[in-house]
Amino acid sequence: MLKFKSLRLLIFSTLCCATTNAQDSNLQLWYNKPAEKWTEALPIGNGYLGAMIFGGVENDRIQFNEATLWSDGPRDYNRKGAYLYLDPIRKLLAEGKQKEAEELAQEHFMGMRSNEEGYEARKKEWLVKVKGDVIINSSQWNNAQWKDMQLPTLNGWETAGLEGLDGAVWFKTTFTLPDSWQGKDLLISLGKIRDLDITYINGKQVGSTEDITANRLYTIPASILKKGTNEIEIQVINYFDKGGFAGTKGDREIFAVYPKERNGKESVKLNPVWQYWVQNDDAPAMPRYQADYQPFGELQLKTSVANATEYRRTLDIANAVSTVTYKSGNVVYTKEYLANYPESIIAIQLKSSAKGRLNYNASFTTVHKNYRIHAIDGHTLALDVAVKNGAMNGTAYLYVDNTNGKVEVTDKEIKISNSDEATLYLIAATNFKNYRDVSADANAICKAKLVSIKKLVYEKVKAAHIADYKRYFDKFSLQLSNGAANAGVPTDERIKQFSITKDPALVTLYVQYARYLMLSSSRQGTNAANLQGIWNDLLTPPWGSKYTTNINLEMNYWPSESLNLSACTQPLFKLIKEVAEAGKETAKEYYNAPGFVLHHNTDQWRGTVPINASNHGIWVTGGAWLSTHLWEHYLFTQDKSFLQNEAYPVMKAASDFFVHFLVKDETTGWLISTPSNSPEHGGLVAGPTMDHQIIRELFSNTIEAAKVLGTDESFRKLLQQKYDSIAPNQIGKYGQLQEWLQDKDDSSDTHRHVSHLWGVYPGKDITWSNEKMMKAARQSLLYRGDDGTGWSIAWKVNLWARFKDGDHAMKMLQKLLSDATAGKGSESGGVYPNLFDAHPPFQIDGNFGGAAGVAEMLVQSHMGYIELLPALPSSLQSGIIKGVRARGNFTINMQWENGKLKRAGITSNAGNNCVVKCGDKTVTFKTVKGRTYSLNQALILIQTK
Ligand code: FUC
């Protein structure tokens, strides 16, 4: 008995340790084949560099990014004098003239685009040139220049060898006219074409359309048809982004010719392989509101290996190391890939178990049109890239350190032969200095770094990397009941088989993977994690892979405090500081107001103005929302000097803006936010609920912060006055929380954004202390339904946790973990084989939001107390969580069994009073900084250490 007791005590005291070492050995993604698609490849990163490991045997691809390589460059985004239109827009909205308000705003209130001035004239001139340059079927058409392309190319001709091409491309093919069709008019169906086509049959134009959404269906008059073979030539002109034949939706027949009046389905199907010729790849730069995050290049490792067996590709997220192993005959080959943060390098170690059997050709490729590959010295190859139509360039070096065998470097590649061990170090730099300055010398940076790289020893690089990573990663662990039932199944297959009852360990893997992704994409001194973290292979990635601030950027950082990665927020805070600087001018030019404003997107150049379209780009609370992250950081860390020096000045400036921006609504007398938008829903309006919730929270945070700092008493009073007058949350006719000032919600509307529920999560404007409002918010979420894009589902996980409905939260999490390759449609989130979140396409916010949601089910602390197991799903009956963080600077370890708390250890890192709730029990106790307080299942304090 005594023995048993002391064993129990031992287990208990291990549980109560604030930090954890014992990591679940199942923290691994693994596959029995190399990646073919990008979303099968495995991500590594150190915040500066990111890479996707395909892990091929004979052809390995390591597609990489440098976080500061973006399109465009520093420039003024502000439309001067926009504020002159503020009152007229407000007036139109107040009169219920939304369409007129949007039109006026579109013309005078959107930001300045790059290359805006004179673009139309340049485009016209270029079009005249490319249209006139070619005479159909003339001898200028050098046949040798024509290549084959399989059509359609659904994601643009960029996926068929024309990466980054904006310009004019000719396509041709032929068809044979059936004798019975002679004398008949025909139709040719071509589907969608991006952007403009000029279609000829036998040299005669039969149609031309400029519209990326239109299905091309042209009449071919019988008079131009020939007996036998007929020629189709199409000039396709693409100004920007995806080009070419984009196919069609549904079962429309395309790439077919048939009689205008046909019998049944008779048609001639065109051969899908057409010939193409690039006539011009120099379309004038298209004006853009904001910049795109850019890919850098790809490192290719080629070798020849006969009959590889026992192939395995892994990503060990407990150590942040990826591996590929296989056998050929008796020789075992291994490749190890890691992204070391302290050295800011990617290291790849290649090994063969037998001497002289390691032979590789390492080379670079890139999707940038302007590039150069050249030898630096006998061990180093360089890739220089310059971003098209932009101010940025970059340099990457690949350095080889081999223990034996031979290394040769040419201007094309590095050849490693007859070796058994070699290490490749990849470094990269750009000319980025800061958001206003691109005068750095990428080449010189790489050159200088090469000197230190030459002194590195792989084993030390690896050990330092693991130590650095574990310092953060090991602060948190999670074990869920039933162990790792399915960890023996390759991860792609495991996702397909996932059910929470059979494989709760996949939830653990998913949560820890989010932490891995954060540590790999957002570290002290790096850029903040963008829409794709740090991983992107496209020149025009979805939504620019930038920073969307009406949900996405904030969601990226939702788990950072609760899941014990507070240090990873530093790049976000730097971004906030910079948009607060840049957004001052926007506040002035657009609203004639002090403080700063940020609208719904920003980029590396810290654009803060409205972009895209006035029906969703004019949304004023981006900066206010981001400012709440500063206050939250203070709540979690209790770091007063951070509050004083970094947080408060920004919070105050954000508040200052809204003090001036809010106006009195004539009908209700409330202060409202106008013009604005309930993100991407319902157009430009006066008084969206979300804005008011955010502004209220901003004001109350700023008041609290000023109190903590003992400052700005009169400003505090002013904020309180304003706070009291802001339009309140309202319950509408369906018992819903109104999304807008007027009761105009549609209960059948399943829009992905759930903006008016901001006050429930991530905000605390609505809590269970106002049960009526909380229920109305829940009703709104029920109307919105359970489906949505990845981030939308992730948001719903958190919302259901705040509604204290663990089972519904888990239902959402299961959706988030569903197989994205099953083709469920564009508004249906899930995960790819590499566990990347699918919006679809890939967008990293869902990974982060989902992980935050799991924490929110287990511990909440937004009400001034710590609540243990507030929304425990019935499918997670038992578990142990260690290192989860709560506001007030507490770190919590907790075990639960049979759906009930078993014990908890709460470490007080700041000496604050502690209030803990679980079920209907509450305990309050004073704490001493550095002590750990152990509570039993009845919340009785049983030990202090
Ligand atoms: C918002 C969302 C979209 C997408 C984009 C990056 O605009 O509405 O769904 O996530 O951001």
TrEMBL record:
Domain Glycosyl hydrolase family 95 catalytic as annotated: residue spans: 458-858
Molecular function terms, GO-annotated: hydrolase activity
Alpha fucosidase A-like C-terminal domain mapped to chain residues: 860-926
Domain of life where this protein originates: Bacteria
Signal peptide extent: 1-22
Pfam assignment, any one: Glyco_hyd_65N_2
InterPro entries recorded: 6-hairpin_glycosidase_sf, 6hp_glycosidase-like_sf, AFCA-like_C, Galactose-bd-like_sf, GH95_cat, GH95_N_dom
Residue span, Glycosyl hydrolase family 95 N-terminal domain: 29-119, 290-435
Alphabetic keyword roster: Hydrolase, Signal
SUPFAM superfamilies: Galactose-binding domain-like, Six-hairpin glycosidases
Classification via PANTHER family: ALPHA-L-FUCOSIDASE 2
UniProt protein name: Glycoside hydrolase family 95 protein
Provenance organism: Pinibacter soli
Lineage: Bacteria, Pseudomonadati, Bacteroidota, Chitinophagia, Chitinophagales
